[in-house]
Fold these 4 entries.
Entry 1:
Amino acid sequence: MSKKGLLFNCGKSKVMHFGEDENTLVMSFLDSVSSYTYNKHERIVGTGVVRCDISSFIFEKLEEKGIKTHFIKNLNNGKMLVKKIDMFKLEVIPRNYAAGSMVRNYPVIHGTRFDPPILKIDMKYSNDPMLNDDYIVALGIATKKELERIKELAHEVNNFLSSFFLEKELLLVDFKFEVGRNEKGEIIVGDEISPDGMRVWDRNTYVSMDKDVFRFGKGDLVEAYKELQKRLMV
Ligand code: CDP
């Protein structure tokens, strides 16, 4: 029986449809914005499309650089065609500057640069508890070898994106991405990489162009995302 057209939820902000064949999925980005920490959830029209467009652009850049992702193509209108991969229950979070939970939970001044960058890995479970190597292996989430590759990949993605953003006079403060195994067992980038899951500041004014605009009611979120899109694409 064909599974085409069946749906399942992927977090709060995306829905997955089965694609034309069993190796592909269509990821639909919803106009749904939420912050677990600040207990906020809103529908903000236009965020789905711009997240999909920015994420598609970033995936294209990563692919050009030889970093494999699940991206196949942007179908526009907030839909992305992707390869079906076996996702790890992990959220991989490189941090280049101190912000958010880092400042709330540790004695560090907002905006402090981390050189080398910090890598935090959370579990996609319950309220996303932070993991360490032993937890990841003991819980059977990834093998030691896979974990080494995930960390290497995280640094490759972070190095590339940080430099790319800096060329556009943007500071990539921190971001979250997800990883999965493709049919060859290779570890590749999945899900989305967009301002919904990152902090980006203008290099000179430190103005945010990410979900902090929503978290702290600092203006029009769609405008902020579109400004980021414009800056990245010139
Ligand atoms: O946002 P905060 O610093 O409090 O939490 P974090 O888990 O330390 O997140 C660091 C970065 O990853 C931020 O840019 C978050 O937006 C992003 N993140 C995300 O998009 N989704 C998650 N489930 C966790 C983190």
Entry 2:
Amino acid sequence: MRKKIVAGNWKMNLNFEDGQKLTSEIVNILKDENDKKVTVVLNPPFVHLYPVKKLIGDTPNLFLGSQNCSDKSSGAYTGEVSAAMLVSFGAEYVIIGHSERREYFKESNQLLTAKTRQALENGLIPIFCCGEPLDIREAGTHEAYVKAQLTESLFGFTEEEISKVVIAYEPIWAIGTGKTASSEQAQEMHAALRNHFASKYGQNVADNLSILYGGSCNPGNAKEIFSKADVDGGLIGGASLKSRDFVEIVKSF
Ligand code: 13P
């Protein structure tokens, strides 16, 4: 059975006190209201990991994730944070290959393979992001583009390793723009990606893969998007910074 997951990506937002307040509010609501047993993940910036983990405590179905990890295991890499460090601070998930990292920090498909390997070797669940820019969508080649991202980064992993990965499809033209993909567009891409994994790893592995949608997801559209057969939840940016909105999205299932 594949998991239903709603993950919040705070990106580079919130100072210490704001992060504490947001987490406390989410914990307070979710401890009573996550009756559908949705897996909820908070992905704050590195500096928030430890205090956020303390607030999460043993809240059921609420987990800590990071927005990034190094492709190296340890050593003289100033400014980097390793997967092993994240685990030692209580993280269980890590976002890998977000389009903002691909674009602004020039992360290649090959580098993302190394990061995914670090995550898996240290027992972190990678939330592996993929998605096409607007010109590719307009040219109609989006399916091939996103499949190539996945093939190049992930298809060297074993069946056992891939079974631990979560995929997030985030069309770049829908991120932070208020312009969401229609539920039909999301379903079409998610089904195509699931088939892509089935062609390499078999139907059983593909059927158990959680594929999240990301891109201007909000309390007004989440229910419709999550109702689609191949959409297993969301990776939420802007709306994850407001506790009520974020929890409303969790409750959209
Ligand atoms: P928004 O929800 O702000 O569009 O961001 C989506 C995203 O990039 C999540 O990783």
Entry 3:
Amino acid sequence: MSQNILVINAGSSSLKFSLFDMKQQTETASGLAERLGSDEAALTVKWPGGQTSQALPDSAYGSVLTLSIAVLTQQQLLERLPLVIGHRVVHGGEFFTDPVIITDAVIDRIRRCIPLAPLHNPANLAGIEALAALYPDIAQVAVFDTAFHQSLPAKAFLYAVPYRLYEQHQVRRYGFHGVSHQYVAAEAAARLGISAQHGIISAHLGNGCSACAVANGQSMDTTMGMTPLEGLVMGTRSGDVDPGLHQFLQQQEGWDLDTVTNMLNKESGMLGLSGLSNDMRTLEAAANEGVERAQLALAVFCFRLARHIGGLATSLRQFDALVFTGGIGENSGFIRSKVVENLAIFGFALDPDLNAQNGNAGGLISTGPGPRVMVVNTKEELMIARAALALI
Ligand code: ADP
């Protein structure tokens, strides 16, 4: 008998799902509904050996999910109802340190975190509510992007602004990508045989990018902050800028705060620097052809990441491994080699052949006695499925 678990990642303009058979620990199908709310809204469902795409006349989550389930049933991928449904929820504030079964009280707390994630949490809640309506008898579990980082000490999570703002509005650093950092750090420690005691820095590099210092399985510091805008240079997000920039741009360009925030989230990062693309493959190809702004964007990306990794090492007692993950981290030997080159002070010994192959069977891409460098493919959806199964 199969053990179906449905994992949902509901975003503001897209909805992704994965269906797992936990007996086999395999993904049986995945789906992506994108450009929701526009005339081009479309649903693609993939499974081993096939896929289907169709336009979505109605972008409401309930309709998207009903159609997705109809496709899964039609393709005989969902012969039994899911045992449990797992949801990726972006912001759990200070409420959640672990995955939880969704109850009315949990929904209320996710709602109370909306001011901290105004685009993401309402979408996550809409996904939860749509599935509760479709499957009222199936338990739902929330897995939070912020939860893993609740172990950060106060010295790492506080901003140096009046303390009242933390007490009254929970202004602090939260960190994101927690499911990924927790998984790749644990996986790297297990592969190195150092599960009990370790110091690892993981770099999750996708469209969003963050890095995290993990000591003995606990997050000690991370680069994203109150929102996923802080820290590293990303596809379209700026990462750290001087907070004085906002007023400067108001004076020089006449921009209001919404315009500045939009620019920092959507027009900055690799796209803003290169003027070309937010996609790392496109930029690497352009840099190879000699496009200077692409070369410059890559140099800033790698330097800023290396600089943050150096800072994160402050939170570790020992430095066993630097782990790369996410679309860029798992696939770009060029980025990994440049980052390591910027970190010569740590004495990494990158193996060029292993790096070019994205790692050996265990993920190692270095040799020698210094801290190791590894590539570990992230499995956020599978981790959410496992967490959901563990709770029922
Ligand atoms: P998301 O954060 O949306 O889940 P991904 O983790 O899939 O994104 O990462 C997307 C990024 O990974 C894009 O910038 C893409 O160009 C980059 N990427 C994927 N494959 C490669 C590759 N072979 N070389 C360089 N970058 C790559």
Entry 4:
Amino acid sequence: MDKTDRFGIWASAKARRRHLGLRIVTAVIAAAVLHFALGWWMTWFWSAAFVATQMLEAWAAPRLLRNPIATPAEAANIAVALFFPGALVFGGLAVALWISVPGYGPALGVAVIASAMINLIALSRGSRLAFAASATPYGLYLLVMPMLDYGRIAGPLLTTMMIAVGLVMLNIIGAWISTEEARRAQMQAAEEAEHRRAEAEAAVEAKSAYLAMISHELRTPISAILAGAADLERTTPGQSRAQARLIQSAGRMMRGLLDDLLDLSKIEVGRMEVETVPFDLRALVNEVVRMWRPEARRKGLRLRVEGARDLPDWVQGDPTRIRQVLNNLISNALKFTAKGSITLRLSARPAADGWSVQVAVADTGPGMTPDQVARLFTPFDQLDAGTARKHGGSGLGLAISRELARLMGGQLIAASAPGQGAVFTLDLTLANAQAPQAADPAQEVIEARVLVIDDHAVNRQAIALVLAPLGITPETAASAEEGLERLARERFDVILMDVYMPDMDGREATRRLRAQPGPNQAAPVIAITASATERDWEACHAAGMTGHVAKPIEPAQLYAALEAALAAAEAREAA
Ligand code: ADP
């Protein structure tokens, strides 16, 4: 109901307006049927009067109710003006019948009033005033009609009639009250359900914010562990090297779990976004297969690819998310298959402006029962209690993969039977794209002065390790204030800025840098953050940051962001 319709009159008027045609037609038919009792003249006269009151009500309602009603007295006046005349005229039919039909007249009259009042119960739901304004004339008629017979019928009979009429009234008012109570209970239940839904939504939001915060906190040390272990593996000999590799693989596992939890929390609150960029699909599939070959070999499984030639190369889509889905499917297939092979069946058909691509990952593993297949995409469900102990994992991969496929406008389906392996099929439609002509920046040595502003020492070290292969030794600052001080004095080519820092955050620092004239006022600032939603990036750009890189830092991403920032700065200077 409209919030401004405090007295429910607008709702009643609307309900009556909806049934206007039906009301007029039934009233006129009833009058026509009863013409034998009323005579044609009376029938026409009454029908015309009734139609006139109804038209008047329909015309007046929107005008009288244009502004919200302020006081109960005003509401009562409007209700009487709108609903009283119609009831007065309709009830007149009952009086006419009562008087003119010998014997059955009173019964017909009471029947007419009772049916009008029952109709009223439905039409004035929620408005006591609307009910009262229409019911009053009917009630008066019921009381007055027996009086018309005063003198004609004996006293006890008249008393009995009055009592019967009183009972009819009471029952009708009782029926209205109970429908009102039922309506209120229904509204209350709906409000309660809405309240619960809002509470549950808020709880999911809070949980996902908490998850995002925890994973942000954990990503920082994990990035450092991974970068440190990679460095150790490169620089130390023998036994220590194997241990460094172990640290790396444990770190990657932790990062994988964190990524899954973060993805799930984003999906749950509808904040997962997919991007559309040009990428080389064939190269992507090749890379994924190349990455899993050693693992397949180690387990004595064959990893085969069929139909690679059919695949287009440059298409538009989200390469990171497609890679994530394929990695999940191949990792599962390898995990659950003890012997035999894993086959990637690739196919592509031209579709409107692009390609309809299908990637099926088939294994010769144990397969699943129909019941297990039905539960496959449920978050945290590993089908079997022993799975986590034997194979690890979180039971999130497939739930996330299916949701990603949907977000990319495709689907992920599974088919399997016990003892017959499993086939997971990813269907996507990808638009055509032009091959870009960029060179690989990671291999070059870059001449640049870089300042890293980050409150975590491990993060600063991790970034320094990632930058080392480019021949860059970055300068560092442990807080936004310290960073701004240095930026006011010395010129840098690029600034890598942590977004979340305790006293002043990276966005505020960038805003201040841009606001003050100085040697770095226009220098590129790359945001480094674990909170990687589109909205976060937008806020970074709005603060004046020129690029962004997600934590944990992927070297290739940082190199690409550096390259882009330096190229843009060079172009600006040349202009
Ligand atoms: P995780 O692998 O992390 O446990 P997933 O969502 O990727 O989570 O998979 C859920 C469950 O589905 C797995 O624990 C496993 O029981 C079952 N499953 C997935 N892929 C296969 C497969 N290829 N063959 C048999 N069972 C599978």
